[in-house]
Every structure is written in C-alpha cells, then in structure tokens.
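Quick one, probably user error.
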C-alpha cells in the first residue's frame, strides 16, 4: 500500500542515519502523516516493521540474484556476478554498512509477532 511504502521510506532513512537501534515506532510515527495507531495497524512492532521492510527489499532485488545465478561462466565469474548483485542490493537498501543479518538478528526474530 502507499502507506506501507511511506513507512518503508522512513525506515530506510532512519536505518541509514541511526542504525537498527535508532529505528523506533515513535520516530517512524513522527515522520508519517498519520497516527501512531495507524502505524501499529500495519506493523505490530518495530521488529515486524524491520522484517517486512527487509522482505520487501529482497523481493525487489530478486531479479538481480536470479540473473546472476543463471550467468554462464567460470565459477569465479559466477561468484563475481552474485557479489555484484549483493552489492547493488546493499546500496539500494541504503544501509551498506549494516548487513541484513545485523538488522534482523536473533533478537528481532524472537520479538517478531508470529503470523
């Protein structure tokens, strides 16, 4: 939805500027044009927001990885293609210095609401 896209844009900016601990529902709520209650209707917690954000980002980057995986070449060339896809994904995520495994660590998974 357009609201979720707006929330993800705010999340990306906060993650880039402040890291995963700087991403809070209060900070997101302060930067979107709707109430905190509406924010919580979309995401039950900060952890749910992080996981949804990463899922959407990976979904949008999937074609890069598929293309790299299908590349016909020597193993070194194929690894390079996968590395380039990962690098592009990191850059567009906006958190080059924060790998997704850091953003969605065991603590995030443990606190996420089961769906």
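Nope, works fine. Designed sequence:
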């Amino acid at each position: 939805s357009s609201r979720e896209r707006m929330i993800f844009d705010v999340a990306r900016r906060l993650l880039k500027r402040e890291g995963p601990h700087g991403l809070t529902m209060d900070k997101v709520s302060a930067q979107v044009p709707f109430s905190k209650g509406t924010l919580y209707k979309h995401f039950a917690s900060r952890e749910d927001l992080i996981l949804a954000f990463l899922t959407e980002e990976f979904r949008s980057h999937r074609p890069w990885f598929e293309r790299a995986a299908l590349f016909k070449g020597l193993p070194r060339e194929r690894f390079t293609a996968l590395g380039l896809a990962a690098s592009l994904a990191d850059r567009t995520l906006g958190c080059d210095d924060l790998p997704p495994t850091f953003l969605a660590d065991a603590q995030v998974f443990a606190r996420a609401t089961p769906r």
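The chain has a mean pLDDT of 82.
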